[in-house]
Specification:
By secondary structure, the protein is an alpha/beta fold. 29% of the residues lie in helices and 23% in strands. It has two domains: 138 residues, Rossmann fold (3-Layer(aba) Sandwich), CATH 3.40.50; 210 residues, 3-Layer(aba) Sandwich (L-fuculose-1-phosphate Aldolase). It has nine helices and 17 strands. It binds zinc ion. Zinc ion binds next to loops.
């Protein structure tokens, strides 16, 4: 991985210390510093002013941007204070931190999936090792957010099926549980240009934190669109989309739509769901929400939504489950995905067991 720093003209002592520590740990792990312009690097550490965050303008979608912001220690749950900094700076990951008067470093990491967790280590070197251990799997994962729309949906599917009717109803039920919050009005936080850039980079238009999908046949499944009010989904080839596969040659999801339709992008999690439906033919439907159920197994790395690696981690967890076709798995620092034969079955098992707060570690 080629990494680079974009720290501005007069980096603060904290930023210089971060640069030194990050540079050393990146080298220790075999990565190469790109001197000079950060354009084209795989990973860019970008200085962000916490009071006035400005985005790093990626030239390529594949660039993973880590925002570095300094400030006073936030309150008990830092999300409300730190999430807007992540969004405004269009970072894939935010490191917000400082030093105690004793000199000891502290920092929180914040992710687009609403993850936030503190970095702890007994020494300076180990502290940067811990930052690296948390950061590297995220920065090297492979996002699949492009959609290729083919106007080849069979006429008998243009109005949907019993399954899309059930998806519409399940979304309404979940909406009534208040599990699809939109905690930050992203379109309002960002100006139009930055909002377009965010959509381009993350494939999201207003984080709606959840999705529904259901198998159509052996290799195809229906899935809700990205960035829509899940309580109001309902139109096939617009906000309910038939995914027919993943095309690695163009790194895009292939989607069948009716001729002349105006589809929204499918949920960024389509690549994970595709992998799971392929590996587990007995799974009929899945619901993903940013909430938690006690006592469930969980992935150990919080890969970003919409990456091949997240899909692999979920599939591995399901492979270990005695009943992958009817279970609930946790996504670390993120939420849950429940599988089942159909939506009514999943909803019946979730009802009364879901709690809105995802544990963070
Ligand atoms: Zn999610």
């Amino acid at each position: 991985m080629r990494y680079s720093f974009a720290l501005g003209d007069q980096p603060s002592p904290w930023l210089l210390g971060m640069r030194e520590g990050l540079d050393a740990v990146m080298r220790r792990n075999g990565h190469e510093l790109q001197e000079g312009s950060p354009v084209g690097a795989d990973l860019v550490f970008h200085a962000v002013a916490a009071e006035r965050p400005r985005p790093f303008r990626r030239q390529a979608k594949a660039t993973f941007v880590v925002g570095l912001a300094e400030g006073p220690r936030p309150s008990a749950d830092p999300l409300g204070q730190l999430y807007p900094i992540l969004v405004r700076s269009l970072s894939n990951l935010l490191i917000y931190g400082g030093r105690e008067p004793s000199g000891e470093r502290w920092a929180y990491m914040v992710t687009p999936e609403l993850g936030r967790y503190a970095i702890h280590a007994p020494s300076e070197t180990l502290w940067f090792d811990e930052v690296y251990r948390r950061l590297a799997p995220l920065a090297t994962s492979h996002l699949v957010i492009d959609n290729q729309f083919d106007e080849d949906l069979e006429p008998e599917l243009w109005q949907g099926t019993r399954v899309t009717d059930q998806m519409r109803e399940a979304a309404r039920v979940l909406d009534s549980w208040n599990l699809f919050p939109a905690p930050y009005p992203i379109a309002e936080i960002l100006g139009p240009d930055d909002y377009r850039h965010l959509r381009h980079v993350f494939g999201i238009g207003g984080l709606s934190y959840g999705n529904l999908s259901a198998r159509h046949d052996r290799h195809r499944f229906w899935m809700s669109a990205s960035g829509v009010d899940k309580g109001k989904i309902g139109t096939v080839s617009r906000d309910i989309l038939l995914v027919k596969g993943y095309d690695p040659s163009i790194r895009a999801m292939r989607i069948s739509v009716a001729p002349g339709s105006h589809p929204l992008r499918v949920s960024v999690d389509a690549v994970e769901h595709w992998g799971i439906y392929e590996a587990h033919p007995e799974i009929g439907a899945m619901i993903h929400i940013h909430a938690w159920v006690d006592g469930i197994p969980s992935t150990s790395v919080n890969y970003p939504c919409g990456t091949v690696e997240m899909g692999q981690a979920m599939t591995e967890l399901l492979n270990q489950d005695p009943h992958p076709e009817r279970t609930i798995i946790g996504l670390k620092n993120h939420g849950i995905t429940a599988t089942g034969p159909d939506f009514p079955d999943i909803l019946a098992r979730l009802e009364g067991r879901v709690r809105p707060t995802v544990p963070m570690s």
